[in-house]
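Figure 2 data, in text form.
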Amino acid sequence: MVWIIWAIAIIAALNFLLLIGMVFLEKRKPENIIAWMTTLTFLPVAGFILYIVFGSGLSVRTRRMIKKKAISERDILRNIKGIETLEEAKTKDIYKNDLGVLNYAYSFGSYPLQGNDIRIFNDGKKQFEALKKDIANAKSSINMEYYIFADDKTGVEMMNLLCQKASEGVLVNLIYDSIGSRKAPRRFFRKLEKAGGHVGEFFPPFMHLRLANLKLNYRNHRKIVVIDGKIGYTGGMNIRDDHMGYDKRLSPWRDTHLRIEGSGVYGLQNIFLDDWRYCTKDNTPPKIYLENGFFPSPEIKGDSSVQILSSGPDDRTPVIKEMFIKLITTAKKRVFIQTPYFIPDDVFFSALRVAVKSGVDVRIMVPKIPDKHTVYMATLSYLKQMTEMGVKVYLYNGFLHSKALIIDDNKLSIGTCNIDNRSFALNFEDTVLIYSKKLNSVYDKMFERDIDNSQEVNLYYFQKQKWNSKILQAVMRLLSSLF
């Protein structure tokens, strides 16, 4: 009996020290501390294990290494002739009502990049066919980064194509996330290395043991492809069968992905190189990237302007979250949001409330068929409050994986970032802020078609739910900051 008392005392002391560390050393948000305090109090042993695996932040050493390997986008782009300065960009009509948004993104190193041709995909198969065609036509380099690169029909098809291009002498670099791609064996990626390509695993586990990864709570959720430094892809779609619509349980699968041709590709290339330099310990001087064609001379391909932002747990500032808040609080007419998970913090929640009370048309669309039941319960809890505020809420008849914001008539944000704590604070993400009335109108029509395939819900929808569902929603909301 004595050893049990000692064990309980030791665990209680350790849990107390963890809480002290959260308050005074890590300086976490109050809601996050409360969630962990609840978990450690009622589940002391399991809570301690959960904290070690999921709760501990990135080490100082890891943060420093990521920053050390990072390349400043400004340092790259100021050496490319034809790239406009911020002051030159401010004189353009396309930004005249959005100088605050422009300045905010620029303050984090995101250049306004003009002259882009952008194609929006909302069908995985069509996006995959376009991507394969561009890869097949690659002449010099293919830089690819995916959260999920699966060893299934879709993954094998892409891997075979990459191996073919590598064997032809094209430089092929591939990054995959260790947790997102955990079901794909390493021999699957070694095929590319044998063909002459190069592979990097983001946050690999200790001794290559998948379950021995103390960084498993931090994931590289980005999906980036850059071909010859001229064509770029990013958005919600991974290299996996269900993202192509082959999973009947999550059908129809609705997603959004971008194909960019023009100088906007530089932003995606820069993000890829930052991740590549970190996970492969690459020390290539930045000027070499300019010389080897990773950043070719800009060409005018279209009339869309973009700023590309990235964020991750290595940043003290949640850049993408704050960008979304900036867009919401400066909106004059409308804010339409599509996200698979909707778990806003107090600041994001307040931004939406201010927008609604200011007469802005705010609409939120989430899936009716969830892929993660616990997260979905928390999502429903927040959506109930949204309906109380006057937000129009839609449940898409299928699985909605799109991460998109439509702002007024001239701005659009599409990328990899969900509206939840994981994407805002724990994942490495990217998003493309597009200034274009034409593309805004294109996506507006897509959103309207999605509404036709959705169920609009009101406060009564949530009030009539069963009592056990309401209790689960309340519990999951309490723990939502831990997801």
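Caption note: The longest helix spans residues 2-25.
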